[in-house]
Amino acid sequence: MKPAKFDYYRPKDVSEALSLLESSGFDGKIIAGGQSLVPIMNMRLATPQCLIDINSLHDLNFIDSDDQTLKIGTMTRQNTVETSELVKSQCGLVTEAVAHIGHLQTRNRGTIGGSIVHADPSAELPLVLMALNGTLHISSEEETRTVKAEDFFLTFLTTDMMPNEMLTEIHLPIWKGRVGSSFQEVARRHGDFALVAAACQLELDAHDKISDIRLALGGVEAIPLLIEDAKELLAGEKITDQAVQKIAELVGSSVEPESDLHASATYRTQLAKVLTARVLYQAYERAKG
Amino acid sequence: MSLTEVNVTINGKSYSEWVEPRMLLSDFIRETCGLTGTHVGCEHGVCGACTINMDGLAVRSCLIFAVQADNCEITTVEGLACSGELTALQKNFIECHGLQCGFCTAGILMSITDFLEKNPQPSVKEIKETLSGHLCRCTGYEGIVKAVEKTVQDNNKEVLQRS
User: Fold this and answer.
1) How confident is the model over A76-102, as a mean pLDDT?
2) Which one of A111, A199, B110, B147 is at 20 to 30 Å from B158 when CA atoms are compared?
3) What is the count of structural domains for chain B?
4) Which of B79, B101, B123 finishes a domain?
């Protein structure tokens, strides 16, 4: 279990990193926290010829916000985000989700950007990004562009990014008003990959009726699954047992999970329905305050 | 590319070595520096045996390349005891039967030492969550949880006595 040989570069700034990435073509790979990349290198499932270490790029390690947007640099450690008061107050769904990623020791090293670009179908951060339709800022030597989460994830471990591109920061919209959110997952043990995870954020009007809602599920498809009909079905409604039942049934009929060693498709479908109900109830209660 | 220089401080001692970039920090610590207290189990970040403290954070040394530890301060299990005196946590592992074969112990001690520094009054649930990052096949974890709880109690007593 030792990685194959590679060339190692430690750029001093973003432009040097992008230049290295450009010149190494398909053989180059960015390493941030390495908590997903190094295991697959140790198992030789990945054998990049050239590793570009961005751990020294402190410009990419930040948490910031303006009135409407929470901004997180790609190199920000998961543990830093988990304990950030700013993140908790502006985007509590992220704080709640990050606590489920791996373990203390991996969150101390793992980064926000690394988890997102790895794009594991059951990972927490891609799910939250999808649930909130965050924006990804991506740079190459030629250009900097933005892409919405809904357009970013393509399939298993595959995103919209090209080999010469690097994620630099993510932006999450800050919801104002009577907002509640909830993140729930079921894993065999704490810290394991989720069998199924659900994330929900909703906003209520003065009469406790839903004015906006985003609901997404992880672990049920190749990419995080946004339940687009949730808004149409629930807008102007209160969260009642009947409404929750309706959405849970919709989720049950929309997901097509795969069976694997960890759980059968039937069990995953059942979990998707149960977790949908749980996040809807919890987000609603939290929004009511 | 051949060899890359690494300058690192481990348990207060400076090491300057030339290594292949693909050398894992866990192997560097054990084989290059001869500090075999850090154990290597799964080598893909699951078992927790190789946990060390790097720049104040408990991390898995099998998921970091030695070249990435350049200019870092590392503490391994050998660096916990001060002048031969075991820490309270280490003593309580002995007292509460927190280990049998000892393979997982070094990693757990490094994680819990970091954990208790940041969260001196943890709940049992928090202790168990932290331990979920470590595999122990001997103890059933009961003794380990007790050792951590007792360390928290001992620390509290010490604080009371001092005040």
Assistant:
1) 97
2) B110
3) 2
4) B79
Residues in chain A with CB shorter than 8 Å from the CB of B6 are none
Dump pLDDT digits (tens) for A17-31: 999 999 999 999 999
Read off the pLDDT of residues B59-73 as tens digits, 9 standing for 90 and up.
Answer: 999 999 999 999 999
- The ipTM value here is 0.94
Q: Show which residues on chain B lie within 8 Å of chain A, measured between beta carbons.
A: 1, 4, 20-22, 24, 27, 42-45, 48, 51, 57-60, 62-65, 67-68, 70, 111, 114-115, 128-130, 132-133
Contacts of A264 (CB under 8 A, 6+ apart): none
Residue B95 belongs to what domain range?
A: 88-157
Q: Which CATH number fits domain A7-53: 2.60.40.3600, 3.30.43.10, 3.40.50.970, 1.10.3210.10?
A: 3.30.43.10
Tell me the residue type at A282: Q
A94: left (phi over 0), alpha (psi -120 to 50) or beta: alpha
Chain B residue closest to A193 (CA)?
A: B46
pLDDT digits (tens, 9 = 90+) for B115-146: 999 999 999 999 999 999 999 999 999 999 99
Torsion, CA A9, CA A10, CA A13, CA A16, rounded to 10: -10
B71 shares its domain with B27 = yes
Is residue B60 assigned to a domain?
Answer: yes
Contact B1 A191 (CB under 8 A): no
